[in-house]
């Protein structure tokens, strides 16, 4: 399979994931690697900086692997999580950074500042903190 994205430095935060080809809305961009899962008790013991790499989806706590773990938050994202895949919700051009909305994560306890620089930016990413 040809490489469809590359990980390098992002203006949003740290490293980001960038498309190496165009994606149409509805196309799967990144398949999550869901082989590493942890329990809620294990999650509670993790240091804060590692909690950021845990995705909660459909009641599972998934330790995100590269490249999915490098996908940055945007308040105006170009992908959404669907069946453990980051799926394009708008046309993505080659070279665009792949972004998702962390606030969609139902178990998210995030509270961090946002630097996505989109028009919709709220300046802060705050999880909904629902129970999973
Ligand atoms: Zn933002």
TrEMBL record:
Segments forming domain SET: 3-103
Cited InterPro entries: Flavunoidine_N-MTase, SET_dom, SET_dom_sf
SUPFAM superfamilies associated with the record: SET domain (SSF82199)
Record-linked PROSITE patterns: SET
UniProt protein name: SET domain-containing protein-lysine N-methyltransferase
């Amino acid at each position: 399979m040809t490489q469809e994205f590359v990980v390098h430095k992002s203006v949003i935060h740290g490293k980001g994931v960038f498309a190496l080809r165009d994606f149409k809305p509805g196309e799967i961009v990144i398949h999550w690697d869901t082989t590493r899962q942890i329990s809620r008790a294990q999650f509670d013991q993790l240091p804060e900086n590692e909690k950021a790499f845990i995705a909660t989806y459909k009641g599972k706590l998934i330790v995100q692997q590269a490249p999915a773990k490098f996908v940055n938050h945007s308040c105006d994202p170009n992908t959404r999580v669907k069946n453990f895949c980051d799926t394009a919700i708008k046309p993505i051009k080659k070279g665009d950074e792949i972004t998702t909305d962390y606030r969609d994560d139902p178990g998210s306890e995030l509270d961090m500042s946002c630097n996505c620089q989109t028009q919709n930016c709220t300046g802060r990413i705050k999880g909904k903190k629902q129970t999973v």
